[in-house]
Amino acid sequence: MIVKATDEYFALLNRAVAREMEVSAQYMLQHTKMEKLKRKVIKENYLLESTTYDEFGKLLKDFAIEEMKHLAQILERIYLLGGEATTKPDKVVIGNSMREFAELDYKAEEEALELYRQLIEAAKNIGDRETWVLFTKIYSDEEVHLLKFQDYLEMESEPDLGETPDSEWRSIFGEEYIALLNKALASEISAIVQYTTQHEKAEGLERMRRKKIALEVVTGKNKASVVSGVLKETFLQEMEHMEKISERIYEIDRESIATVEPLPEIGNSVEDFIKLDRDAENYAIVLYRKVIAEATKLGDIKTKKLFEDIIQEEEEHYWGFDDFLP
After folding, report:
1. C-alpha distance from residue 175 to each of 92, 178, 245, 269, 319 (Å)
2. Please, are residues 144 and 156 in contact by the beta-carbon 8 Å criterion?
3. How confident is the model at residue 63 (pLDDT cuts 50, 70, 90)?
């Protein structure tokens, strides 16, 4: 055993996991919503090639990716210490303006710094040097995020964006249709959490299992390490899907809702991962066929094309997982 981690210690680590899941989704969805906000700021768009909205949007995407890296590192540490990670993020709140994004994100980073100070102290107290080093580095990253959000809090107030008047072509996007698109978005968030967590757990399984057969010894790989690599590639694609679906919802001037549905299932072995992930892909394919059917009925060609492209990749994921089944 590396260190004797208590239930209270794992609870602190899992609070960090829930927070990193939350802010990664929050920043990414704010990034995709930025285009919707930018369209309403006509004067700034006319005068400048790159607006404040462009710059802040890019920053949010960069921070979302950085938070996902933090999440992966914390998950890896939890599994290395023999714990189990949560799959429930803290509540995501997106906001309706650039200033509101900055206020929400500044508060999230303040809360993170307070939590990570507790974790750094707890790691020091039980002699967990590696976790201490990890959170010292993450703490430094979060300080940078907080100070950057503070810059946006201190800028002049942005224009009153108001509401976009509805029009005949946009009236086809009713509540049930948007709910279906948000259900697809929830599916992608669920898959990201599931595959990221399994990737890190598979890495731990790979380290713990001795390579027994000649091919494993020669290649330095086993089934756990191969599956871990597949999961990493897959959740990166799911991140792209999440971004594209959210962008489309905002493009038609509706609102994304960040939920995790169905709840991610992790499993305890590589075989569990494969079966659960095959089921997750099956769920997505069936759901996305419904989206395509509804988009076809409404004449929403752009959404139809988007989901046709996504479903091709989901089928590749499905067959990729299916190949590992006995």
Report:
1. 21, 5, 16, 40, 33
2. no
3. very high
Q: Write the Ramachandran bin of 273: left for phi over 0, alpha for psi from -120 to 50, otherwise beta.
A: alpha
Residue 225 pLDDT > 90: no
CA distance 93 to 150: 18
Sorted by where each starts, the structural domains of the chain and their CATH numbers stand as 7-162 (1.20.1260.10), 167-326 (1.20.1260.10)
Mean pLDDT for 18-31 is: 97
pLDDT at 228: 86
**pLDDT tens digits, 194-204:** 999 999 998 87
Evaluate whether 206 touches 225 at the Cβ level (below 8 Å): yes
d(CA 153, CA 284): 39
Give the integer Cα–Cα distance in Å for 301 and 317.
25
* Contacting residues for 115 by C-beta, under 8 A, at least 6 apart: 12, 15, 16, 19
